[in-house]
Amino acid sequence: MRGDPEGLTGAEPRTLAPFGRRTLRIAERRVVGAYVVLVAEDPGGPRPRAGQFYMLAAAQRWGGGAEERPFLPRAFSVLRARFDPPTRPLPTLEFMLEAVGPGTERLGELDAGDGLHVTGPLGIGFVEPKDGRRALLCGGGVGTAPLAIWQDELLARGEPAPALLGFRDAEHAPGATLLHNARVATDDGSHGHHGLVTDLLVEEVDTGAPAVVYACGPPPMLEAVRALCAEREVPCQLALESGMACGFGACFGCVVALRAGGYLRLCVDGPVLDGALLAEVPAH
Amino acid sequence: MTGLDFCGLRLAHPIVNGSGTFDAIAALRAFGDALLERFPFAAFVSKTITLAPRDGNPPPRLYETPAGLVNSIGLPNKGLRGYLEDDLPQLARLPVALVTNVMGSTAAELCALVEALDERDEVDAIELNVSCPNVSTGLDIGADPHELAGVMAEVRPRTAKPLIVKLTPNTADVAAVAQAAQDAGADAVSLINTLRAYAPHPHRAGTAWLGGGTGGLSGPAVRAVALAQVRAVAARVSIPVVGMGGVQSGLHAAHMLEAGATLVAVGTESFRDPAAGTRISRELDDLFAKSGDNSG
User: Fold this and answer.
1) How far apart are the first and last CA of chain B?
2) Which residue of A has its CA nearest to B53?
């Protein structure tokens, strides 16, 4: 298939996943505004790269929800990975979710002690800034998640990156507390800037030093980020989302159309893509 | 279980993958060589290869149903040349036999595919995907016994390798088509392919959700249908049958074997757990051990 970036393996920011699904124990469930953060102990797993994702399913009662779903696992970017003691006795992975359907509803019910099936880490994560550019993080809603672990990594390298985050309303805005140094926009103006997060991004991009934008969020937001970056010739890396059955290249379900023609599978060639590869971010 | 013979190939156990449900090359990128050390299938069946490259259908391509999945992928592949040059050398690293699945929209296309694969030592067997309209006659090749017999008469002489016909369930009498495949020299048949299915758009009334319009249903939702079709086919033909459709456990695999299958393919369950094949094969072993039947 056209567009397969062959030969990237080795250079790409990817931690290989252990082969097969494993069952983790939920150590903690935190409510952050309208979101749930699940903390799962992953004693045997490797440390993921920022932007990589896991396929998640509840170990019990996966199925039997609305319309007798869910059936397939769901893809989630990792919010944080804590592999350095003594944060906790065991390494942990954190995931941020919002109940929007039968899969996220069931996952959101999980609590300390429950089992979580995971396969991962999967996909390719963010690539570090080049050419002395500063990193700008731009997220929307639950798309805040991969930016948190990336902000941690950048900070550890001495590159503090400001975060611009958009939320629907004040109920969702607490999601911003998952990152440091965040400026918030809400659709209804109930918290922070009244308007779109891309308003804040334009301001930052147009006034500061040359930047590279790292973005994740709903498709209309990502498309706006892609377009404004393309217009200004600012590089951007977009963490895309798609319905996904497997997460490891088997089902060919999660494709996105490329500017050059053909498709890429987000699960093996993404989910983080250089915005320049796309003519537009697909609506679903 | 000490292994079994399938069309002259020696397999370690009866669990294989369904075509198009496991991409070993992509899985190597995700899991590395751990995949080779713990390869979940006794033989690997490639996704469908066509003569010319195909991009596949526009997204969305997936729709979750109660206990199942409707897909409309559209057979994306690099085409025969890309497969021979790029994929085969990588697939040769797999520790198991390789079955290459092909589809053509004319007998001539299928002949070209089969002839090219016949020359490659890496390919142990060829599976024909006949769930496709014959553009010369307008009929689904695999839906009609006479249509299939006509195509097989041309394709069969092109290879001495085992030829498996992947039957479509979207036909009035699958056993009659299986019989035609056997009479035309097929070494085995495999079934079921996905059931034709439609997914309504969740927000736009009267509109299809899938970019390809219609799709195919797989997963546990089709298991009972698959068992009935495998039983009907196995009762009719004497060549080996590869049974598949919604298999999620060793018990489900045992039911396929009881229905008359020689091999059992795992498909959609691998999406939920890439190592599902290993678990199912182990569970099947445990069932045999319990029943004291180690004949396999």
Assistant:
1) 6
2) A1
The question of ipTM being above 0.85 is answered as yes
Contacts with B21 from chain A: Cβ below 8 Å = 250-251
Chain B residues lying within 8 Å of A249, measured CB to CB: 23, 25-27, 29-30
Q: What is the crossing angle of helices B145-155 and B107-118, to 10°? A: 40
Write the burial class of residue A207 (CB in 10 Å: 0-12 exposed, 13-18 middle, 19+ buried): exposed
Q: Which of A91, A122, A153 is the last residue of a domain?
A: A122
Measure in Å the smallest separation between the Cα of A284 and chain B Cα atoms. 7
CA distance B67 to chain A (A): 6
d(CA B29, CA B78): 18
First to last CA, chain A: 22
Which residues of chain B lie closer than 8 angstroms to A6, CB-CB? 86
Of A1, A57, A267, the CB nearest to B76: A1
In whole angstroms, what is the distance from residue B102 CA to residue B96 CA? Answer: 19
Q: Which of B32, B34, B59 lies closest to A255 in CB terms?
A: B59
CATH number for position B238: 3.20.20.70
Residues of B in contact with A265 (CB under 8 A): 26
B212-B214-B220 Cα angle (round to 5): 120
Output the pTM of the full model: 0.95
Number of structural domains in chain B: 1
Q: Each residue's pLDDT tens digit in chain B (296 positions)?
A: 568 999 999 999 999 999 999 999 999 999 999 999 999 999 999 999 999 999 999 999 999 999 999 999 999 999 999 999 999 999 999 999 999 999 999 999 999 999 999 999 999 999 999 987 767 777 789 999 999 999 999 999 999 999 999 999 999 999 999 999 999 999 999 999 999 999 999 999 999 999 999 999 999 999 999 999 999 999 999 999 999 999 999 999 999 999 999 999 999 999 999 999 999 999 999 999 988 755 54
H or E, element range at A165: strand A163-167
CB B190 within 8 A of CB B245: no
Do A250 and A154 share a structural domain? yes
A283 domain residue, yes or no: no
CB A67 to CB B219 under 8 A? Answer: no
Nearest-Cα residue of chain B relative to residue A243: B62
Determine the residue among A251, A267, A280 to mutate to test chain B binding: the one whose Cβ has the most chain B Cβ atoms within 10 Å.
Answer: A251
Can you give the residue range of the structural domain that contains A104?
A: 22-122
Chain B: residue nearest A19 by CA?
Answer: B31
- Residue B211 — φ and ψ, nearest 5°? -60, -30
The number of folded domains in chain A is 2
Say if the Cβ atoms of A252 and B56 lie within 8 Å.
yes
Q: Is residue B161 part of a domain?
A: yes
